């Protein structure tokens, strides 16, 4: 090896002794890619499960040459997400570069900017609004989803449930979030429909490039997001058009974007002086009482559009994943499907309807949804950065300030240490009489603490309402084309399906 290549090699691997110095175990990294190439052989969720088994509850991996500490100890998770939340309210990019829309979404912002954004977004999920959206979702289930399933049942054809539920969650989302009525089963030209599926296309080369190449190269290549950049632009332009039309019409309706628009800055108002995302000095969030900067209800137009984009992606794709995985588990476990059917049949009125309150009082439904979220939680990990040096309990390991760490929620959900027969679908673990067996901070499909998923009540309501009306009418079963286990897409943080074929038949 020449002196020059030896120097380059040493430069590119200089971080690789990082975990050794901290006394942390982990898989051996390779030059340039770190541990990223493992994704070529195993899906991200399976990889995380394997690593937790192999290295225990604290270990380290490399994304390129960037070290990431993994923490799967429930007590430490409580500290990170709840007790010392202010110290950790610092999200870190998953990629080496940021996209202006993605960086402004509630899920990405940090510190005082997060508090300002969360204050503006939370009222959109108030219970009164949720009750009104119940009727809209009920309409989408009846007019679209059930009709489409009936056609598939009549034709005796297996159904791609990911696509089928995707059309439903897209139409429910565009109505509830933007007041826009769409029919994704037919109206392929609507910009929300045309861009909904392609926005999630993430080729492996792009994923590796975003995590390995330096920022200036990514800028030249115009790569800046795990989402498809052109589709982000099309979706956000459509959101902006809707917002402007609402403004000029004086629209006071109740959809998510209208509520968030209530926080829009006036023409002469300025953005509060909260932290700059690149200000590495200010990693700890100020306390609520320090001043009122973080609590002002004021967002710019760009920030509001970004909240529209997170609603779009979460309420479309994550919801379609959840419904598809539930259907898959019930197709494989007919006795669980029958038991849930009996519960639903006993709860609906003579017209087959169920009220908002009654929907949340179905214990077996709740157990089935939770057990599916345990087995197939969409976000595989949470990523945080400590604003101060952070001792990892009594391990003697101190995570340096600014060093990103990750909570591998998916792997925790799959650990036999916390869930006996962890890879099996056993809804009974979540029944009220068994819940005392669950260890706190080992079930976090929606995260926990102040940054818990703001859309959780909406997500649960929509999923349960759809299931009541679908399972009341149809029975699902595995088909020869049903992949067991299902094939998931390549993504650094999410478990998501491309397609999933299942047989459907009408109950009568
Ligand atoms: C099955 C459905 C869903 C799951 C499993 C889920 C899960 C999560 C998780 C784990 C987080 C925390 C991420 C982190 O801290 O890194 C989160 C945050 C968030 N979710 Fe969801 N989510 C779902 C549906 C939704 C829906 C339907 C919406 C909106 C309509 C939504 C909006 C958000 C937002 C805005 C945040 C950021 C909260 C914050 O940082 O303050 N989610 N979600």
UniProtKB/TrEMBL annotation:
Keyword terms: Endoplasmic reticulum, Heme, Iron, Metal-binding, Microsome, Monooxygenase, Oxidoreductase
Membrane topology reported for the UniProt record: Peripheral membrane protein
GO terms, molecular function: heme binding; iron ion binding; oxidoreductase activity, acting on paired donors, with incorporation or reduction of molecular oxygen; steroid hydroxylase activity
Residues at which heme binds: 453
Pfam families membership: p450 (PF00067)
Cross-referenced InterPro entries: Cyt_P450, Cyt_P450_CS, Cyt_P450_E_grp-I, Cyt_P450_sf, Cytochrome_P450_3A
Primary location recorded for the protein, binned into one broad class: endoplasmic reticulum
Keyword Heme: yes
Bias-annotated ranges (Acidic residues): 270-282
Annotated stretches, region: Disordered: 264-288
Superkingdom as given in the UniProt entry: Eukaryota
Gene Ontology CC: endoplasmic reticulum membrane
Cofactor: heme
Subcellular location(s) per record: Endoplasmic reticulum membrane; Microsome membrane
Function: Cytochromes P450 are a group of heme-thiolate monooxygenases. They oxidize a variety of structurally unrelated compounds, including steroids, fatty acids, and xenobiotics.
Family that this chain belongs to: Belongs to the cytochrome P450 family.
Record-given protein name: Cytochrome P450
Source organism (scientific name): Medioppia subpectinata
